Amino acid sequence: MKSLKALIRLHKNQVDDKRRHLTQLRDQEDRLTLQRQQFEAQVEMERQLSGTSVDMAMAFASYLPQIKLRRNAMETARQQLMIAMQRAEEDLAQAFQELKRFELAEEERIRKEKAELARKEAMMLDEVAAQRHLRQQEEGGMGEE
Questions:
Q1: pTM of this prediction?
Q2: What is the C-alpha R_g of the chain?
């Protein structure tokens, strides 16, 4: 059986790629959270300004539908990002399992190779010991005649 090192290397690269992708998605989540916080801070500032005059209150009232639309868009983007992150996590877990499967198969192959080598060495040593024993018996038998 050939070595699985090439397949292991391939799967390690795939795991690394999937980790990078998940990291990118988490970075997007952080940026989206920051944007949401900045937006909410801006809305709060606008709300406070709307209390200073009637004109500002009317302007803020006309701005409310846009606030709702923007909040909905941000929430939709967040939900889509969460779905993408969940898929990326599942893909990473699956890739990691495949990598482990190949690593375990390689370890088992190496273990079997070592066991076979040890078996052959033991057979060879047994053969040498048997030949030595036969020679000793022959030498001992020749001296008696």
A1: 0.71
A2: 37
The pLDDT tens digits for 65-101 are 999 999 999 999 999 999 999 999 999 999 999 999 9
| Phi, psi of 17, deg, nearest 5 | -60, -45
How far CA 63 is from CA of 36, 47, 48, 59, in Å, comes to 17, 10, 13, 6
Contact between residue 56 and residue 49 where contact means Cβ atoms under 8 Å apart: yes
Q: Where are the beta strands (DSSP E) in 61-101?
A: none
Domain boundaries, the chain: 5-103
With left for phi above 0 and alpha for psi between -120 and 50, is residue 3 left, alpha or beta?
Answer: beta
Report the alpha-carbon distance of residue 86 to residue 92 in Å, rounded. 10
Structure tokens, 51: 């209390």
